[in-house]
Amino acid sequence: MEQNAAVIEYRTLTTSDGVAIHALHEPWPGPRRDLCFVVVHGFTGNSGQEKVRKVIDRLRAFGGIIALDLRGHGKSGGQTTVGDDEIHDVHAAVAWARELGYERVVLVGFSLGGAVVLRAGALAPAGCTVDGVVSVSAPAFWYYRGTRVMRGLHWLVETRPGRVLLRARGTRVSGRGWPEPLPVAPYEAAGRLPSIPLLVVHGDVDRYFPMEHPRAIYASASEAGVPAELWEIPGLGHAESAITTELLDRIGAWARECVVGVPGSGRT
């Protein structure tokens, strides 16, 4: 039996710091609203990209979907801070999921989004707490320049000409810099999560972040007693561009089993 056609609801959410965030909701075709995935894209992404749609369409077999455009991306307002203030965007999406009546909420983030969901899960205010976190291809540390592609990305983000180029391609980056002390790093946030399931997914041919990143995230969580799993995927590249439908199915099944406690999905 095929899934029912999705009825997509769009909404402009307002974050706690006053930024307008574009978001969409696609309900699960299952019998009840027991699980919602909040899907958070990577840097320069948005919820309408084909690679992000692949994630949405596949995970919808396992639960409802809320996907958002992070600040400075897509149809959202504001400027991206590349991992600091974006937690407010995710919290607004979680609040919407609770308003819609979902019993459990799992954050699923990719690359920049993978760092953001770790921080959003750890630093959630009342009413925005979540029941699980999936971090895919995320950096563990701020200002990582250990790969060629990340050195190029830092030039784009940290220089005026680079930010102009990014704006021309649809991503608006804040030039104000970060406060001191620095925001809680993703690996530190993993160790501050409440006792909820955490899944860390990373490929061994990731050109952005080598395996030291997921291992640091996993170690921080495990040492703090967070129930965490690390999936090191042979041959997998970076984030939404590389993830397969089979791996998305594994992630969806993991969420239903570890968070909801009921194996299976709506896919037949």
Question: What is the element layout, followed by pairings?
Answer:
Layout (H helix, E strand, L loop, with lengths): L8 E6 L5 E7 L9 E5 L9 H10 L4 E5 L17 H14 L5 E6 L1 H11 L9 E5 L11 H11 L1 H9 L17 H5 L7 E6 L8 H12 L4 E6 L5 H4 L2 H16 L8
Parallel strand pairs: 3-4, 3-5, 5-6, 6-7, 7-8
Antiparallel strand pairs: 1-2, 2-4
Describe this structure in words.
By secondary structure, this protein is α/β, with parallel strands linked by helices. The chain has a single domain, classed as Rossmann fold (3-Layer(aba) Sandwich), CATH 3.40.50. The protein is 34% helix and 17% strand. It contains nine helices and eight strands. The chain has helices at 50-59, 86-99, 112-122, 148-158, 160-168, 186-190, 212-223, 239-242, 245-260, and strands at residues 9-14, 20-26, 36-40, 64-68, 105-110, 132-136, 198-203, 228-233. The protein has an eight-stranded mixed beta sheet, with helices on both faces. Strand 1 (9-14) and strand 2 (20-26) form a beta hairpin. Helix 2 packs across helix 3 (112-122). The longest helix has 16 residues, at 245-260. 48% of the residues are buried. The model has no long low-confidence stretch (mean pLDDT 94).
What would you give as the CATH superfamily? Alpha/Beta hydrolase fold, catalytic domain
How many domains? The number is: 1
Q: Strands of the largest sheet, in order across it?
A: 1-2-4-3-5-6-7-8
Number of helices: 9
Total strand segments: 8
CATH class: Alpha Beta
Q: Indicate the structural class.
A: alpha/beta
Low-confidence stretches: none
Helicity level = 25-40%
Largest sheet at a glance? 8 strands, mixed
The helix/strand series, from N terminus to C terminus, equals EEEHEHEHEHHHEHEHH
Shape: globular
CATH architectural label = 3-Layer(aba) Sandwich
What is the typical, i.e. mean, pLDDT?
Answer: 94
| CATH fold-level name | Rossmann fold
Rounded radius of gyration (Å): 17 Å
Strand content: 15-25%
How far the N terminus sits from the C terminus, by CA atoms, comes to 6 Å
